[in-house]
Amino acid sequence: MRIWMVDEGAGMVRAWTVRGGQSGEREAAALSEGLTIVGWEELGDLSDCSSSDDIGDLLAKAYPDEAVGTIDNWRRQLWRFITMEIGDHVVMPRKHLPVVALGLLTGPYEYRAAAPPGFRHVRGTKWVRPALERAAVRGDLRDSMGAFLTVSELSRRDAAARVRALAETGADPGYVGDGEPPAGPEHLVSDVRDSGTRQLTARDLIGLWGWKRRTSDVIDLVDQHLAELGLRVDPHFNDVQLDGLVTVSAEGPTGLGEGVHDQVRGDEQQARSQTDGPRERDLTWRIGNLPFVREVVTVRKDDELSRAITPMIESDFSQLPVVDHNNVLRGVVTWEGIARAQLGGRTATVANALDPHPETARVEHALFDRMDRIQRSGFTIIVDGENAVIGILTSTDLAGQLKQRIEPFILLEELERRLRRLIKHFSTDELPREIRRTMERGQHLSLGQYVFLVKDAHCWDKLRWPFDQQDISRRLATVRDYRNDLAHWAVDAPAEDAAALAATGGLLKLLKLVDHDPAV
To answer: pLDDT for 364-408, tens place per residue?
Structure first.
């Protein structure tokens, strides 16, 4: 059994743009008549097609003005549509409604010649959940349904089992673990072409081009490569943690969906394309750039208040998000709210202590725009597009990140200051020629130049350090490379390279033994 997603909106929009109909009309017909419907209103009966090439021939005749690439993509989609097996699940995201329809295919492909144009290519379908809330679908699976393709297969991250569970129980069991990334950029393009979307971590995405850290240069270069390949990334790989999940899809509907795309999504796509290009992208830190707690303890409004108090005491939480059955945020319970409820004699349920308007943020929000609010409230709850809770970020987390990101610079500054103080014991003539001119110009040496000093036999003898010369040279070279790496703006914390940070701290500790601070 396979799972297919039929985004009937793409075909529907083309048909209703031609006929001037309402955008939800085909959805309503599909649900009321027990059908899955795709458009291509100029195309005749496909029942005699024994291969996708046969469909391609018919498409080329029906749409002579379309590009070869568009025809090729359409034939793939229609071949999927007529060859889906009876018993497969079908997902139909509803346009302009916060729901999806889930169904089971019950019949083979049919061509209804007497039906209105745009309603003729159908499959019998039993819609077992015609209006499942989008919030019931976890974010990764929901994002994979956002392809421009009219018909695409949902295959990765246990999609088949998860859609089956949604159809049977209304709950998404989710997916744990990391998927295998594409073997290279060309395989990424192939995956998007075949399935409409491809999900992978930001780390794996930049790794396709051999990068490990998101500096400004890397971000621009990957953006440029993606644009050249006709791909877009949501959320942008710069707006999430390095191991955060992003969804790659085609840059636009051309050649991927059926004809004219939905005007609302099309306008939104055009606006984002104008601002998301590699030249225009800013370097703003986002909420999603910071590590935040993802395994969030939550409670329901109807829970006994003790259900909130116990974990708050045990784990020293100052707050707990209050959610509904789909993990959608409904408020927050804090110690202040609990105290108010108890003082008022209202202590029965979480609802009595509920603050219905907690501080919230999404991963794409600018971090510094939110910092004052996070400091005032002590936390912000991270939600997705459906207001489902995906994490929490506290002022304590911010303090930890401040230390992690500032500590390397503080260590390097102190290390360089102590090295500068030690070099004052040398005259210019005693210095190696590689660094002599720098000193003659009255400039400070770089960390890389101190390597020449330590390697010079005369200078090393004069330093009279109780250390191994080669060991100190290696340490300096490591710290030099680390300092050069930090010179480039990067989203990812410098402490991503824990070994280099430890080497910096270790070298500083050694220098403190030979460079004594003046007595106070």
So the answer is: 898 888 888 998 888 999 999 899 999 999 988 888 888 877 888
Strand ranges (E), 326-399: 329-334, 354-355, 360-361, 379-383, 389-394
User: Do the strands 89-93 and 3-6 form a parallel or antiparallel pair, or are they unpaired?
Assistant: parallel
Question: Apex CA 339: angle with CA 374 and CA 397, to 5°?
Answer: 25
For residue 196 the two structure tokens come to: 């409409």
HSE on the CB side for 376, CA within 13 Å?
A: 7
CA–CA distance, 472 with 386 (Å, rounded to integer): 55
Of 90, 91, 124, 119, residue with least CA distance to 109? 124
The predicted pLDDT at position 15 comes to: 17
**DSSP conformation class of 105:** E
Instruction: Name the token pair of 136.
Output: 């019931």
What tokens does 38 get? Answer: 């795709």
Q: In a 3-state reduction of DSSP, which class is residue 388?
A: strand
- Count the Cβ atoms, other than its own, within 10 Å of residue 33: 15
DSSP per-residue codes, 40-59: -TT----TT--SHHHHHHHH
What secondary structure letter does DSSP report for 411? H
What does the DSSP assignment read for 211-251?
Answer: --S-BHHHHHHHHHHHHHTTEEEES-TTSS-TT-EEEEEES
As a whole-number percent, the residues of the chain with pLDDT over 70 amount to: 86
